[in-house]
């Protein structure tokens, strides 16, 4: 194994250990905040411990659909589930805990009003706390990032985790009536406030935090594929600034009441979100073109059979090949087909970076590993239309 490959694996272990420890440490204060969110009602009377439980249950509802959307985007080369899980945990624990601390200290130091903190301090603080995970990926797990789409996927996971914890706080507070006081000082009906908060945060805008952080992810994805040192530094920074500005626009709209919020939602957020969705789908489709060209060149070099390429780069053909393998080889045959396709896809992404002149330091050792995996599995699989020998 080459020195670069050993360094990459050591950095990968370091990343996993550091993130896991930070998540564990941050989980304690976050859990305490969740419990405290249900300790007092608006009128000062003790509230029911049901509040944080309701917050957790209701905040969980949009999590699964959002995660599935990002996994759908990430079908060509699925990112390691461990890393995706760490992204969720980072957003839910570390980013939330640090953001609460920094915003509290920042508000005390600056003396800003609550509205000013909400509109200016909170957006850039929260996007920085979420974006640190992406920067750490860029520094320590760079080989897991292949471009803009990977950056969007990881950013989405961090944003989903952050939104989950933040929604718990808001929903629990809503049930207690602590965020709904009438001008005469009395609390509004807790069930009505909870319902309104749930509709607004979990149904009307569950995509907000993943959407904002996606711009930092885009910047990180651009940095991975660039040969310019200036771009590699500036792209994540510009992405972060875009994330912060959009977040600021979103938070600031609430200062002007329901009308201002709805106007911002329709005029700014929905078009921007639609544009991001189009970009993500385009990026996924462009991966097919890139992989076809990359693996075609690899086939010309004798690294993979040329006739196998369509069964790897076309998603419908991949599913057909796996069904065929399962039909004739059972679960073991299907597993072998998945292994072959995954190794070929990873080779395609790596070879594409070589062709673009942005190959990582461990390019040679990783390339040999993928080719060895392909060679080891290929005799045990067959694609539709090929002769299959059964025993």
UniProtKB/TrEMBL annotation:
It comes from the Bacteria. Keywords: Hydrolase, Membrane, Metalloprotease, Protease, Transmembrane, Transmembrane helix. The chain crosses the membrane at residues 15-38, 50-73, 82-106, 118-140, 152-173, 207-225, 237-256, 262-283. Pfam families: PrsW-protease. InterPro entries: PrsW. GO terms for molecular function: metallopeptidase activity. The keyword Hydrolase applies. PANTHER family: PROTEASE PRSW. This is PrsW family intramembrane metalloprotease. It comes from Nocardioides eburneus.
